[in-house]
Amino acid sequence: MGKERLKQVFSKPKDRLSIYLTAGYPKLEAMPQLAKILTDESVDFIEAGMPYSDPLADGKTIQESSSLALKNGMNLDLYFKQIKAIREFSNIPILFMGYFNQVLKRGIENFLQDCTDAGIDGLIIPDLSPEIYKNKYQTIFNKYDLSFSFLVTPTTSDKRIAMIDNLSSGFIYAVSTSATTGKTDAFGDEQIQYFKRLQDLNLKNPIVIGFGIDNREKFLMANHYADGAIIGSAFIKAIGKQEDYLSVGKQFVKNIIDKSY
Predict the structure, then answer these.
(1) What is the residue extent of each domain of the chain?
(2) Which pLDDT tens digit goes with each residue over 23-39?
(3) CATH tag, 3-8+15-256
């Protein structure tokens, strides 16, 4: 399925929600359990984060979740095993989110084949620059049925956004702020102008807004200006250190997409 399963997410008009999970958090076996909840609550796709010891864009909440997940014993072999377990009950699109060192250490083709075999639909690798991807790796990545989504920020030029649009094949991840993940201020005028600028570029890829979305109001605003919203830190914070993290996660999603009313 690969790219096609993710493409179907954007084929129907609706408010779209993606939830970020840190694999191995808050418990080692949590990711498949949480994926079941998210599937049942009609979340549109999942970002399955592979914890990394030296993250770049992650704020305090996700850094701490990654540290605990690694202590819990999460590794790439177990990550792929859990993705396969999710595929036994769900067709929800799943994106690998991690760092390029994890890919290189496994071997690029080995990693891409493992993603395909496990049932992953696409990749987000924040520290792999578009230029290096294009010049060194695009030919290899294109051999596999996996989407690739790059990030843009408020400071990204229109010219660079157009280049990123040409290289992306799933959606463009529009970072709402120049800060790290987890900032919860309301969207201001500058951010609204940035979202409108992205709209006016008429990009070929859908735009999904992430970073700082932590309530229903911002979820709806992101969907007003773009094609979807990604919630990461707020969900991780909600389920963290909760024995009943599954019911907490379920209620969190209900509150965002308003299924409880």
Answers:
(1) 3-8+15-256
(2) 999 999 999 999 999 99
(3) 3.20.20.70
